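so the lab meeting is tmrw and i was supposed to have these ready like two days ago... anyway. pasting both below. for each one the top line is the aa sequence and the line under it is the structure tokens. i havent really looked at them closely yet so no promises
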Amino acid sequence: MSLSINEIQKPIAAEMKAFEPKFREFMKSEVPLLDQIMNYIVRRKGKQLRPMLVFLSAGACGEITESTYRGAAMIELLHTATLVHDDVVDDANYRRGFFSINALWKNKVAVLVGDYLLAKGLLLSVDNAEYTLLRIVSQAVRELSEGELLQMEKARKLDISENVYFEIIKRKTASLISACCAVGASSSGADEKTVNLFHSFGEKVGIAFQIKDDLFDYGDLDVGKPLGIDIKERKMTLPLIYALSKSDWSTKRRIIRIIKNESHKPDKVAEVINFVKNNGGIEYAQQEMQHYVDQALELLNSASLSLPHKEALHKLVLYTIKRNK
């Protein structure tokens, strides 16, 4: 089974191609500076997994409609707004290998650009009476913000339990992916039960996606994410949380002290990585990731869906855990 993005996209290749000019049109502004920044944002797009999920979910449930295009654009507009604001909050100079908006145009402009994108997403839905889609996407943005704040609150003490970790990633990562799937299903005219099923499906995929991201921190240098970056940033991820839960009090205290005070030292980061590997953190995270993938595929298989789109969703789920960056 091929797991390349091009292969997965096949059933929606025409729609994804048609989406690009539509999205550019949705982002347009009569203010030259804003239009320049919008063009820059469109040029630096990534794999476009979110629009893919919207179109595949719509195609699996029924017809891909103009509502589906608007739903995908709403997701992208509101998601991009949160990323632009995140870069300001984190004082980040890069996003996907490109300069961030705040690095090129400073914080004030970046905050206003984020506000503009947010307003564009809201108006796109209101102007077209897409109130159901608006509710789905707005709930996701609310959860995403809550997840970020919950993580910031807990990160100060480094006392995140496994339950709190899952609560954070359910909101931070999974909420938007579940919104993509629910928006796609809803835009095709699916009933409430099916929309809810796709929302749950997306949540499971999102959790597995985040655990895979966690595991990159402990992988090889060629996985696209620098080794130990989460440890350097003092982020409590699932492999580390599990390893700490299996340690005695003095070991736990020593590792937390390293993360708090010495995470800038490469040898100390290596010590934490070895601690996690030696205490079963990697295996446990892999098992949990597979558990959520199995649940996602079980939900997918329980519904009567259009076969090519269903198969592509199946491949996309496997891609999220087999990707190398």
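ok protien two:
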Amino acid sequence: MKQTIDQVEVQGKRVLMRVDLNVPMKEGVIMDDRRIQMAIPSIQSVLSRGGTLTLISHLGRPTGNGFEQEFSLVPVSKRLSELLDQEVICSDDDSSSTIILKENLRFHKGEKEDNQSFANTIASGCDIYCNDAFGTAHRNHASMVAVPKSMEGKPKVAGLLLAKELEYLGHAISNANHPFVAVLGGVKVSDKIGAIEHLLGKVDTIIVGGAMAYTFLVAKGSEVGASLVEQDRIEDAKSMLESASKFGTTILLPTDHVCAQTIDANAETKVYDGSIDSPWMGLDIGPGTATNFAGVLHEAKTIVWNGPMGVFELSPFRIGTEAIALAIANATAHGAISIVGGGDSAAAVSDLGLDEKMTHISTGGGASVQMLEGRAFFSVAMLDDAV
């Protein structure tokens, strides 16, 4: 366990806090402020105890060649001001303000290069380092690695959000109650190979949906029509299916499919039970599969979900993802621990208004997948252990 921001004295100290304020923006307007909201508890912990704050974050993917209006954090500072009911200045200049937000870290090449000189500039004048950015915990960037290096001898602690993420995606999984079910979806098997291999033997059942299921089905000899298949991963899928039986883990695949010939909201759809004919392609799990998967989830005591069951952004292909979300919410209501990771899964839960029905919704897509793979993060290892 890591020491957390609420466990250190901050009175009269300036805390440099790495937060994840990488929110979706459109023409300078914040489309979803969830990540800003999630940063508030750690910020309030410092302010309520007499500390001052310098917040640092990235936003989007600027070129790294200086200021770009499209990626400015000024709109974020305004939203923070509203949520905190006090002014938050967005500025790279030294300030005596109680709370400032430095401009987008990625305006500087030094951030992604983990440049020590850049890190020393950021850390100047700060007394405590706090990492509350789980969404970038897997990236060895300056704000995550070089900055704590430059603050040698000073407290380096986890924020409340980071600590919560580590607890659920680390401790809760390694000490899971059984039956333990992992639901993995999305497009590519290659994105989830590490997670599947790590979970074999730890979980009782792995439910596979999304386009990645068709690579597994081909590995089992099924006809999948024009469905997306990673030809170079078929042998990997075969190997994982064989390993699962040795480890005592059941891998469940879709048995019926909502299909279309084009990925379009107005496309004609057809449900195939078993084999799929070309040029039809599977774009969502079918109703029979949804019922079967929901039955397994109903019995679960621990559930991890990462990745949708289909092209849920389009209404004809969202029913499977909705069914899974509702089944997990129902299992949670009956005492299961549910952990939702990945942007698409979290978005689906939010769209259905089920945020409060899940035990934990992770803020990190890539980071949550890497934790499911059993990887350790150097940025976290650098933080002080709890006393």
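from a quick look at the 2nd one: The longest strand covers residues 14-18. The chain has a mean pLDDT of 95. will dig more after coffe
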